[in-house]
Amino acid sequence: MRPMKKVCVLMLGIAVSLATSSVVRADAVTDWNAIAIQTIAGVPSHPGATGLLDGAVYDAVEAISGRFRPYHVHIPGASGSPDAAVAKAAHDVLVSRFPSLTVSLDLTYHSYLAAHSLAEDDPGVAVGQQAAAGIIALRANDGSFPLNPPPPVTGGTGPGVWRPLISPDHLRLSRQCWRLGWPPSVPSL
């Protein structure tokens, strides 16, 4: 084989191996982020809970892996499946923020565990539960999630029909939903 041909075959082999090794793989974090987005989208005019959910999920995974510093919840001696911890942490945060959807979220949680061959008694479930409880307690009274969100803005949508850009109710919500002080994930500046 000529040298140029060898180089071309080698480059083709490398390109094929790189292309096949970067296959997108879903994991528990992306799965539960998708579930959270679907849940939040189904509740009109209500603020989301993805920041809270991501904090709980991070602390749950971090407690098991121990690679980095936790955001808020330190769980010494944590063990178990990180996927089970993620599922439980995300589930508990979503249930705390959307209690009217508890039955649906419970069904999603149990189906997720079964589909991924995760046991309900996996130690990771307890880790996820502790992480979620700690993050929920941390953000309990910061005003980020009002109990009574304002009604959606109503008005015409036809051509030439005036519709307010923002209602007084939305202004009230914007004041209620954002706490004063530092951003929640920045302990100090």
Question: Describe it for me?
Answer:
The chain has seven helices and no strands. The radius of gyration is 23 Å and the shape is extended. The model is unreliable at 20-25 (pLDDT under 50). The protein has 189 residues and is an all-alpha fold. The protein has one domain: Phosphatidic acid phosphatase type 2/haloperoxidase (Vanadium-containing Chloroperoxidase, domain 1, Up-down Bundle). The longest helix has 19 residues, at 3-21.
Topology:
Layout: H1 3-21, H2 28-41, H3 50-65, H4 82-97, H5 102-115, H6 123-138, H7 168-177
Helix pairs in contact: 2-3, 2-4, 3-4, 3-6, 4-5, 4-6
Any idea of the CATH class? Mainly Alpha
Q: What's the rounded overall pLDDT mean?
A: 78
Helix proportion: 55-70%
CATH homologous superfamily name? Answer: Phosphatidic acid phosphatase type 2/haloperoxidase
The succession of helices and strands, N to C, reads HHHHHHH
The low-confidence parts are: 20-25
Report the strand count. 0
Distance between the termini: 63 Å
- The helix/strand class is mainly alpha
Tell me the CATH architecture. Answer: Up-down Bundle
